[in-house]
Design brief:
This protein is an alpha/beta fold and 172 residues long. It has one domain (2-171). 34% of the residues lie in helices and 26% in strands. It has helices spanning 16-32, 60-65, 69-89, 131-144; strands at residues 2-3, 40-45, 49-54, 92-96, 105-108, 119-126, 155-161, 166-171. An 8-stranded mixed beta sheet has the order 1-3-2-8-7-6-5-4, with helices on both faces. A hairpin with an 8-residue loop joins strand 4 (92-96) and strand 5 (105-108). The longest helix is centred in the middle third of the chain and has 21 residues, at 69-89. The radius of gyration is 15 Å and the shape is globular.
Length: 172
């Protein structure tokens, strides 16, 4: 099971407050598409799996806070991607990447301090789109990571599409 409320526990690069916000954004996106608790998330790509989803209750205040669909979709996708990477790959988000690097988060396995960068994570969200839209976004995000290829670390691209819902996970 993927429980968005788990984000509220935080991780090295996610404060508990930001984790709660990411969970709320994911909840708004899922409910806007008519999904109910327990809806299965189909993971496609290199790691084919399916997980039931659970998320915090969406209140009117949360809807008003996350009224911008683009922002909610981006942050909801980040929350789901971070939980998927943890569950599927055993990595945690250990540091937010800076603009211009071509990816969103440094990933590590939490094997002690100081954390070691093990991989890169680039995330994108689509509120409602077909397979061609998802494939196109994955290809765009793969190319986006090119500036940081000199790290020689794998780049994981996760595109979350909320209407079905699916998560396309690819490694570069």
């Amino acid at each position: 099971m993927i429980q968005l409320t788990e984000l509220a526990g935080g991780m090295p690069a996610i404060t508990p407050a930001f984790g709660r916000y990411l969970a709320e954004a994911g909840a708004v996106c899922l409910e806007s598409q008519g999904h109910a608790q327990g809806q299965r998330l189909l993971v496609q790509g290199r790691h084919k799996r399916s997980y039931p989803l659970s998320w915090p209750a969406v209140t009117e205040q949360i809807r008003r806070c996350l009224n911008d669909p683009e922002v909610a979709t981006e942050h909801g996708a980040v929350g789901i991607a971070i939980l998927l990477v943890k569950k599927v790959l055993g990595y945690s988000a250990i540091q937010r990447s800076r603009k211009g690097t071509g990816f969103d988060y440094w990933l590590g396995d939490g094997s002690g301090m100081p954390f070691q960068n093990k991989a890169r994570l680039e995330v994108s969200g689509i509120r409602s789109g077909d397979d061609a839209t998802v494939r196109s976004r994955v290809n765009q995000k793969r190319r986006q990571t090119d500036p940081s290829d000199g790290t020689r670390l794998p780049a994981h691209v996760v595109v979350v599409e909320f209407s079905r819902p699916i998560a396309q996970m690819e490694e570069k």
